[in-house]
Here is the input.
Amino acid sequence: MLFLLVAINLFIYIECQVLYQQPEQVHISIGNNASEMYVSWVTMNDTKNSFVQYGLYSLRDLNLKAVGSSSKFVDGGSQKRTMFIHRVKLTNLKADTVYTYNVGSNSGWSDIFFFKTWRTDPNWSPRFAIYGDMGNSNAQSLARLQQETRKNFYDAILHVGDFAYDMDSDNARVGDQFMRQIESIAAYVPYMTCPGNHEQAYNFSNYRFRFGMPRNGDGESIYYSYDVGPVHIISFSTEVYFYLQYGTQQIRNQFAWLEQDLIKANKNRAERPWIVTMAHRPMYCSNNDNDDCSKYESIIRTGLPYLGYGLEDLFYQYGVDVMIWAHEHSYERLWPIYDRTVCNGSLAQPYIEPGAPIHITTGSAGCRERHDGFIPIQPYMTAFRSDDYGYTRMQFFNSSHAYFEQVSDDKKGEIIDKTWIVKSKHGIYSYADNSGKCKGSLPENP
Ligand SMILES: [Fe+2]
Here is the structure.
């Protein structure tokens, strides 16, 4: 009898090994430069190998093979579910070229996907879709994004924190569902991310393991940067300022890295003139909830009490052009602003030679928490705001012209806001340059 039970258990164990070695949740992100691509996926059991087979789309032949590795991920929930997260770096890719690929091992292979590499030079016009706060349920913008990805609308997608609601829920099964759901876009264009508050469980472990971003920051996708066309994009975590139970060292490390990265980016501005940051919680907003950008002073902007490390001065000092945020389930575009003072603010379009960074908050992709509303009177720092579900499109045409538009999914894809930013000169802002441009200031400590 005992022998029979052992045999049955052994059979079930072997069956499980066979059943759960299929690759799933395939997604890609740019490597440390445009000739590299990270390909990531999940298997529920160890497969020993992690391969990507790839080749030129035109030949329809997966004649190249890259080898990577997998990490065993143990979720922090009560069931301590495990999975294996595979990551393979493709290198020496030809620029501006479409590749086909599939992923897997001798235990199972995925479907075939494709992606187009970026050009490595700055003289092209990358196109982005940008949003935050997209969940599994009520992911209203996803269908439109899937269609547009198929139609080659985008060179990258930027997800500005808050995924799945939440990736750790139901012992990380919600994270699995989410990653399967976005495969339809994230396996085809680089899906670039930053962490939000909904990723905080178990020290952001679901986020850190599942997403593989460039390794030039902390190496765990919390902060990093990359060049794309005429733009240098910096992604970082606002959440290190809020979950202090995981330590404050990360605030110091991130701040020091941000400054070094900005110094380096400024030395390279002749080649990559635009600097854009993306992180989850905005410095300014006009929402009517209890978040710190509306009712209280933003600690991202001014720093933590007794500790500091506020980021507005740093970003102003090093001439960041655009700051992208999410967290508020709405869209809000501000006039150029620094230190609660609107610079170059007028109702004229477009922004011409703005005297301070431009903030855009776009956290309305759709999630179970629904919309966030606004305070009734629109403050004068705000150029446009809407709480329709939707997402932002961004394109950098060249060194002087960038274009932004807001897609309303509620209004069936209608463009509800659009604007150009025109800058003949990028770099460090100074009060001297801004003389006469900055008008009025917001009340202190609203
Ligand atoms: Fe959030």
